[in-house]
């Protein structure tokens, strides 16, 4: 007598996830200067995985196929969004830079516990924070913004101007076209109340012709920079 094997609920959930998300394994984890980690993910051949510099991925920092994740309520915090530093399509390696924020949040725990060989599930690259056709590009932001900025700077063919604010010199990423960038250090001041970023943008000498600005950071900072660019520079 033959018995038809029925797939487990976990197996069904996993197959459904594979339709939407990509899988890989940690290739390496390296501590960076300051508060970050470089994370290389070997992803293999993932159909339809296209990345445009500046885009991000949503990483599963908890196993959403596990019953305990749903029972404990951890599924609400199971996804974290990280900008992609680089994607080597020929080697099939996706590289992330993750800030080690203070505290014990789900994302921080995930990054600290990563070891080579561990499985990683993530969404395909998404987001519209990418280069647009323009005579020049102006990049303005803080620590987390410098990750997509690195990718965008490598891809840009037009002139670039930029101001990046970080806590201290050790938080500077090795961004290309460094001669086009101005760095500002806020020390122990909270990013939300810092005024040095907009002041540095105000001091930039920009071309007379219109360019395209990419601004990322705390809501107040973004508002002030935008007001300067629109109201004071037209």
Q: Can you put this structure into words, describing what you see?
A:
The chain folds into two domains: 9-126, Translation factors (Elongation Factor Tu (Ef-tu), domain 3); 136-233, Nucleotide-binding domain of ferredoxin-NADP reductase (FNR) module (Rossmann fold), CATH 3.40.50. Strand 7 (137-141), helix 4 (146-155) and strand 8 form a beta-alpha-beta unit. It contains six helices and ten strands, in the order αβββαββαββαββαβα. The protein is of the alpha/beta class. Helix 5 packs parallel to helix 6. Strands 3-4-5-2-1-6 form a six-stranded antiparallel sheet. Strands 9-8-7-10 form a four-stranded parallel sheet, with helices on both faces. The model has no long low-confidence stretch (mean pLDDT 86). This is Siderophore-interacting protein. GO terms for molecular function: oxidoreductase activity. It comes from Actinomadura litoris. Residues 1-132 form the FAD-binding FR-type domain.
Summarize the helices and strands and which ones pair or pack:
Elements: H1 9-20, E1 21-31, E2 36-42, E3 56-60, H2 67-71, E4 79-88, E5 93-99, H3 106-113, E6 119-123, E7 137-141, H4 146-155, E8 160-166, E9 181-185, H5 196-202, E10 212-216, H6 219-232
Parallel strand pairs: 7-8, 7-10, 8-9
Antiparallel strand pairs: 1-2, 1-6, 2-5, 3-4, 4-5
Helix pairs in contact: 5-6
The 3D shape can be described as: globular
Q: Specify the structural class.
A: alpha/beta
* Biggest sheet layout: 6 strands, antiparallel
Give the C-level CATH assignment of the largest domain: Mainly Beta
Organism: Actinomadura litoris
InterPro entries: FAD-bd_FR_type (IPR017927), FNR_nucleotide-bd (IPR039261), Riboflavin_synthase-like_b-brl (IPR017938), SIP_FAD-bd (IPR013113), SIP_fam (IPR039374), SIP_rossman_dom (IPR007037)
Domain FAD-binding FR-type: 1-132
GO molecular function, one term: oxidoreductase activity
